[in-house]
């Protein structure tokens, strides 16, 4: 007996050792079924590398908040907005340090300095005042140090730039000598939260705490050293749009630029929508403002007890927390503060008006995101549908990355997961998680996602100060190839790829749905020609079966209508022939009966006559 | 064919007469003994079966149920529970308000009133397997007719067996629905209390077992 057990255990051990490639991932991939359950799916993305400041060849990152990837001159460049270190870090395609941007120069003429900062002017040019004491109307001819701590060069109070303080007018006519003489001063970045880079390498930085957006020029010198120098007029400060709220302080956090040169800016605590600006930083309009809706109880409270209004929660529109632009120039925006009930109603109604955490805005600010799946893309569905007393957090989206197929990955910071949807809003795969091992994030840590080479993802963890680099597994690649093939109108390849994916995950509803659509398309193509009509009908049948497995009712109906038409057309001759035969047979039978009856009657008559005789 | 079986079939097909002539039909059901309790209970059973068939066999396009998961007891309770509550609440209130019908009459009237469900929903289910999504209205109209007809029969049945005026019937039906809500509340309360008592005794026994 003991021997047997030993043998068995040894065999078990051997089997375990021999099993190849069973690598436990710290997270799992799943999809949601039509009936709202979680269904396991094969892992689509695995972490391939973790990048820290040290591994990149610079100091540690400190609460970085944005990551951006752009192909500059055919080479990938990664830009990290390293908020806590007040810098922008540029990494190359191998995630090694290239350069960093820590500040920018402003250039002002003497006249401008005098007009805006007279006290600083006096400190800069004391000799002008000592030599001409009569012309200065100051009570003290010599400039004395001001009691307030003077803003030093380089650490100027940015508010001074935005809001020229109402200068008391003690100087009726001081003529500035050499008014066009230029002086430059250096500003360090102050907690930059957003970075955007154009194809040519020029970079926009949201210098958040200084309240400005700075436009940097990309420069490569003869030795190939790269550097960034801000454009002289590339400092766009407060566009003065928030006149309603006097206390509002402009803190730009995210910026993007579209193909026609318009800037779209998100500012912290600004609930009016996305600021649209010209490429000169002049404010044009707000787009995509979120609507507010008061609940019945709120309205009732406000009407019945108006004096309580100040004590109730204010109804404030939700605020965008990130924006990205896709290849077609549409803006993808995410909202992280949608309430549970709004999110739930959006999930089922799929309406764009209220509660949508992901939006795709056109230039008018209208949401045109396609939500054709059974449920709208809201991240984790079970958090909304399961009524356990634990009430798991709903998904809180922080950033979005769009690839060339218009499928987008949104990062849910509550779960550290990236939910990836296709163009129609069907969930393709999920990767990432909360944890302490490679490939996972700290709670509320995952804040920014960027796509590399249209395939791999970089996700930034602002709590652990690192970047996880995800690459698709073979299964994930099959999905990607299928989606790409379909986008490129190579339907045969797409069908093949989705069928291949079904070998990995035989219950994938999204795979069946796609296959069904492809079969239907193929069937319609074949159905047009008379010689391939039967084959086309077979495809309709296959499409119906696929849609049934995908729980796709409207698509099933479309395939079914085609198939029913084929069957009707095919069986119509038989039905008609059968009907005619039946009618003819009926007529014949009744006639025969009539004839027989008549004959019998005649016979009876004859017999009767004979009887009478 | 034995005599009782013949009576049963006669009373079973009598549902068609009730459906087409509700007032006359219910009057004869009660006073001329043309309906039987057996036939009424058969219709209740058939309704349960119909609802299960509808849940499982409606065409894929119109069927949003998870047909892999079926609990017949749950489905049956979904029909029989409200029906029982209706009958009990009906009897409780009409007894107090000069209703002429006995509990048997009420059950019979309600049972026969369910006949349209059987005769309309089953064809609708069969038809739904042949319809596409654009033709949904054919399916919807059949099921709607069934429900509306049933409501009309319930109304006329209550009115005829208790010999009420139409106005009084409306009021009493509203009261019956309220009574159903109260019954539901009491049932829930009873079970919650029962659960509490059961939990108490389990705790006591467990405690004793720990000590012994």
Please, could you describe this protein's structure?
The complex is a heterodimer of chains A (613) and B (212). With 613 residues, chain A is an alpha+beta fold. Chain A folds into 3 domains: 38-102 and 189-472, TolB, C-terminal domain (Neuraminidase, 6 Propeller); 107-186, no CATH class; 508-613. Chain A contains 14 helices and 27 strands. Chain A has a 4-stranded antiparallel beta sheet with strand order 3-27-26-25. In chain A, helix 10 runs antiparallel to helix 11, helix 12 crosses helix 14 (553-612) and helix 13 crosses helix 14 (553-612). The N and C termini of chain A lie far apart (113 Å). By secondary structure, chain B is mainly α. Helix content of chain B is 81%, strand content 0%. The model of chain B has no long low-confidence stretch (mean pLDDT 93). The A-B interface holds A 35, 548, 553-554, 556-557, 560-561, 564 and B 60-62, 64, 66, 130, 132-134.
User: What helical percentage do the residues of chain A reach?
Assistant: 25-40%
Low-confidence stretches of chain B: none
Question: How many domain modules of chain B?
Answer: 1
Using the 3D structure, state the CATH architecture of the largest domain in chain A.
Answer: 6 Propeller
The domain tally of chain A reads 3
Mean pLDDT of chain A, nearest integer?
A: 85
Order of strands, widest sheet of chain A: 3-27-26-25
Q: Which quaternary structure do these chains form?
A: heterodimer
Order of SSEs of chain B: HHHHHHHH
Q: How many helical stretches of chain A?
A: 14
Q: Based on DSSP secondary structure assignment, what is the total number of beta strands of chain A? A: 27
Residue runs with pLDDT of under 50 for 5 or more positions of chain A: 133-160
Roughly how many Å apart are the termini of chain B? 67 Å
Structural class, from helix and strand content of chain A? alpha+beta
Rg over C-alpha atoms of chain A, rounded to the nearest angstrom: 36 Å
Biggest beta sheet summary of chain A? 4 strands, antiparallel
CATH class of the largest domain in chain A, please?
Mainly Beta
Beta-strand portion of chain A reads: 25-35%
């Amino acid at each position: 007996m003991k021997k047997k057990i030993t043998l068995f255990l040894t065999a078990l051990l051997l089997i375990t050792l021999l099993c190849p490639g069973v690598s436990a991932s710290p997270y799992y991939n799943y999809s949601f079924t039509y009936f709202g359950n979680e269904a396991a799916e094969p892992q689509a993305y695995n972490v391939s590398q973790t990048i820290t400041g040290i591994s990149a060849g610079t100091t540690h990152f400190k609460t970085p908040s944005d990551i951006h990837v752009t192909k500059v001159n055919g080479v990938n460049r990664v830009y990290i907005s390293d908020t806590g270190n007040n810098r922008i870090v540029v990494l190359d395609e191998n995630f090694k340090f290239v350069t960093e941007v820590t500040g920018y120069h402003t250039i002002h003429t003497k006249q401008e300095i005098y007009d805006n900062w007279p006290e600083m002017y006096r400190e800069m040019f004391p000799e002008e005042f000592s030599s001409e004491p009569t012309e200065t109307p100051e009570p003290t001819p010599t400039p004395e140090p001001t009691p307030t701590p003077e803003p030093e060069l380089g650490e100027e109070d940015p508010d001074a730039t935005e809001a020229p303080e109402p200068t008391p007018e003690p100087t009726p006519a001081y003529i500035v000598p050499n008014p066009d003489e230029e002086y430059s001063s250096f500003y360090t970045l102050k907690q930059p939260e957003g970075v955007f880079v154009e194809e040519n390498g020029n970079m926009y930085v949201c210098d958040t705490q200084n309240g400005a957006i700075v436009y940097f020029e990309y420069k490569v010198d003869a030795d190939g050293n790269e550097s960034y120098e801000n454009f002289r007029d590339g400092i766009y400060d407060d566009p003065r749009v928030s006149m309603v709220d006097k206390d509002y302080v402009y803190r730009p956090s995210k910026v993007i630029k579209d193909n026609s040169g318009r800037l779209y800016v998100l500012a912290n605590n600004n609930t009016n929508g996305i600021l649209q600006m010209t490429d000169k930083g002049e404010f044009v309009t707000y787009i995509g403002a979120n609507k507010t809706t008061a609940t019945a109880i709120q309205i009732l409270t406000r009407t019945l007890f108006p004096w309580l209004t100040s004590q109730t929660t204010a109804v404030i529109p939700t605020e965008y927390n990130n924006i990205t632009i896709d290849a077609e120039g549409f803006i993808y925006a995410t909202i992280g503060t949608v309430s549970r009930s709004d999110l739930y109603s959006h999930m089922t109604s799929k309406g764009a008006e209220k509660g949508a955490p992901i939006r795709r805005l056109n230039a008018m600010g209208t949401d045109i995101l396609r939500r054709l799946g059974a449920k709208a893309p809201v991240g984790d569905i079970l958090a909304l549908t399961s009524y356990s007393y634990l009430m798991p957090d709903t998904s809180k989206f922080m950033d979005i990355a769009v690839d060339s197929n218009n499928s987008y990955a949104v990062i849910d910071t509550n779960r550290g997961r990236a939910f990836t949807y296709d163009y129609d809003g069907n969930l393709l795969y999920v990767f990432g998680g909360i944890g302490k091992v490679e490939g996972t994030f700290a709670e509320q840590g995952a804040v920014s996602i960027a796509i590399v080479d249209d395939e791999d993802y970089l996700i930034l963890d602002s709590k652990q100060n690192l970047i996880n680099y995800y690459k698709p597994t073979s299964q994930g690649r099959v999905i990607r190839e299928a989606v790409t093939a379909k986008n490129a109108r190579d339907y045969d390849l797409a069908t093949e790829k989705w069928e291949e994916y079904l070998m990995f995950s035989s219950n994938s509803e999204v795979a069946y749905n796609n296959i069904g659509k492809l079969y239907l398309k193929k069937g319609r193509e074949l159905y047009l020609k008379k010689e391939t009509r039967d084959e086309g009908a077979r495809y309709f049948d296959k499409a119906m079966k696929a849609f049934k497995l995908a729980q796709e009712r409207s698509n099933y109906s479309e395939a079914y209508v085609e198939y029913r038409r084929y069957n009707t057309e095919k069986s119509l001759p038989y039905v008609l022939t059968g009907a005619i035969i039946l009618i003819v047979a009926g007529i014949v039978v009744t006639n025969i009966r009539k004839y027989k009856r008549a004959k019998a009657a005649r016979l009876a008559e004859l017999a009767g006559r004979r009887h009478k005789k | 064919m034995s005599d009782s079986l013949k009576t049963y079939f006669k009373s079973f097909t009598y549902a068609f007469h009730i459906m087409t002539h509700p007032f006359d039909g219910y009057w004869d059901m009660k006073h001329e003994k043309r309906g039987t309790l057996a036939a009424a209970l058969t219709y209740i059973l058939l309704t349960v079966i119909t609802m299960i068939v509808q849940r499982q066999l409606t065409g894929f396009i119109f069927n949003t149920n998870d047909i892999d998961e079926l609990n017949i007891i749950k489905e049956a309770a979904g029909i029989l529970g409200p029906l029982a509550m209706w009958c009990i609440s009906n009897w409780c209130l009409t007894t107090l308000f000069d209703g002429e019908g006995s509990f048997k009459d009420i059950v019979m009237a309600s049972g026969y009133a369910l006949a349209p469900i059987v005769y309309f929903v089953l064809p609708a289910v069969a038809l739904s397997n042949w319809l596409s999504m654009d033709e949904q209205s054919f399916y919807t109209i059949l099921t709607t007719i069934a429900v509306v007809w049933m409501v009309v029969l319930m109304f006329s049945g209550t009115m005829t067996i208790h010999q009420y005026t139409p106005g009084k019937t409306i009021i009493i039906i509203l009261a019956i629905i309220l009574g159903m809500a109260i019954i539901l509340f009491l049932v829930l309360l009873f079970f919650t209390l029962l659960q509490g008592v059961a939990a108490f005794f389990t705790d006591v026994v467990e405690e004793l077992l720990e000590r012994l």
